[in-house]
Amino acid sequence: MGEHNAPTFPQEIIDEYAALGVDLPALFSAGHLGERMDIRIVEASADRVVGTMPVEGNTQPYGLLHGGASAVLAETLGSVGTMLHGGATKLAVGVDLNCTHHRGVRNGLVTGVATPVHRGRSTATYEIVITDEQGKRVCTARLTCLLRDAPKPAAA
């Protein structure tokens, strides 16, 4: 796993979270599983989240990108979009994920782009399109997240 680039955020999002003392790159990372899979979030807003993942290290026994790896990338990107939509007072919890795998990939980097299908007060749904380095669609996913109230910080 190489050095991770910090995700990019719209300035109003940076300002909102900075006022709360929140480290956005850490909060909107792919977490421990994403780190193991070397997922990198390269762009993030409620309107569009882009991330990459290497095929190497994320394959099934036949040497193809594992469908579960595509699912992890999709859920990561859609969850980040939902969290940005919900704002600093909400948490995104995935409640439905479906993935259609279109073609196999044996090497290189795949890129996922999450865009909103629905953004409401209590749920958000994102479509995530994962492509290979030639721009061919590898997987199409849809994630619906529930927006829950974030826990209040403990009093000091």
Structural account:
It is a single chain. This protein is an alpha+beta fold. It is built from four helices and six strands. It has a six-stranded antiparallel β-sheet with strand order 1-2-4-5-6-3, with helices on one face. The protein is globular.
Radius of gyration: 16 Å
Percent range for β-strand residues:
35-45%
Taken from the alpha-carbon principal axes, the silhouette is globular
**Largest beta sheet, briefly?**
6 strands, antiparallel
Structural class: alpha+beta
Indicate the percent of residues in helices.
Answer: 10-25%
Low-pLDDT ranges: none
Q: What is the number of strand segments?
A: 6
Q: From N to C, what is the helix and strand string?
A: HHHEEHEEEE
Number of helices: 4
Mean pLDDT: 88
Biggest sheet: strands side by side, in what order?
1-2-4-5-6-3
State the separation between the terminal residues, measured CA to CA: 37 Å
Which structural traits does this protein have?
single chain; 156 residues; alpha+beta; 6-stranded antiparallel beta sheet; 4 helices; 36% strand
Helices and strands, with pairings:
Blueprint: H1 11-18, H2 24-27, H3 31-36, E1 40-44, E2 49-54, H4 67-86, E3 90-101, E4 109-119, E5 123-131, E6 137-149
Antiparallel strand pairs: 1-2, 2-4, 3-6, 4-5, 5-6
What is this entry, summarized?
By secondary structure, this protein is an alpha+beta fold. It contains 4 helices and 6 strands, in the order H-H-H-E-E-H-E-E-E-E.
